[in-house]
Amino acid sequence: MSGRAGHRRLRHSVGWHLAALALLAVVLYPVGWVVSASFTPSASILGDLRLLPRDPTVGNYQRAAEGMAGISTLRFFWNSTVLAVLAVVGTVASSALAGYAFARLRFRGRSTMFVLMVSTLLLPFHVLIVPQYAVFQHLGLVDTYVPLLLGKFLAAEAFFVFLMVQFIRTIPPELDESARIDGAGQWGTFWHIILPLSRPAMITTAIFTFIWTWNDFLGPLIYLSTPDKYPLPLALQLYIDQTTLSDYGALMAMSMLALLPVIGFFLFFQRFLVDGMSASGLKG
Q1: Which of 70, 115, 165, 252 has its C-alpha lying 20 to 30 A from 225's C-alpha?
Q2: What is the rounded CA–CA span in Å between residue 280 and residue 258?
Q3: To the nearest whole number, what is the mean pLDDT of the chain?
């Protein structure tokens, strides 16, 4: 009986592993195809589903490096970097301050305001597009980075504020009391006690903000009209022209180049991401 049970467990284990590998192949196939297409001549990309290019070439990367519409590729990378870095700084700073206020300060209407803030997570982003655009257009801020960054500095990202609140609530209040006994005020307690201990949650916030901002296409599409200000996701559309020939090879090569910073950023900080999620009570 024990031998049969062992063989049964072995078959189940092999079956589960084969199913997992098959699912992994399906999930990773699009990524593998993009990698292959980036080395495939542009005229042969459409309709070719092979993972190994027939006539590999690096010309796609050469054309991608030259830029598009007279704008250097480095300019697009610089625009994305500026947006991502400023978004990280604004989101981390404002979310930490708002999280500390909701988690530690006692003021009238705190619970109601917190519930209202969390409820905004259920509000579709598309509902706000028209009124937000009308406001920024009235202020003359369209075709600038202000509409894309202003909310980051005003704690408008409810998910990250909630993340900081959940994490700060796990910090023992006795530490705050000890700081006040030593003469620290609210700002001193936040800066010297709460902020250093909130590093995992702050790193988690930084990782998600960087990735979401770097990959954001809809926001820049709505507010930016000058190609010189385009970030990478929006610049990719310059390689597709409905009136003339589209350079799909350079488009695939640029897509791969745009993925590299995100992959590197995630791989470098993934350990902090797991620590931050588990410590914030969001694991599982």
Answers
A1: 252
A2: 30
A3: 86
Task: Say if residue 148 is in the same domain as residue 234.
Answer: yes
pTM of the model: 0.83
**Domains in the chain, number:** 2
The two structure tokens encoding residue 58 = 């690096």
Q: Which residues pair with 71 in a beta bridge?
A: 68
* CATH code at position 184: 1.10.3720.10
> How many angstroms separate the CA atoms of 90 and 86, rounded?
6
Give the model confidence (pLDDT) of 170-179 as tens digits. Answer: 888 888 888 8
Which carries the bigger pLDDT value, residue 49 or residue 88?
Answer: 88
Residue 276: name the closest of 163, 118, 196 by CA: 163
State the residue range of the domain holding 243. Answer: 67-279
Residue 162 has pLDDT above 90, yes or no: yes
201 pLDDT above the threshold of 80: yes
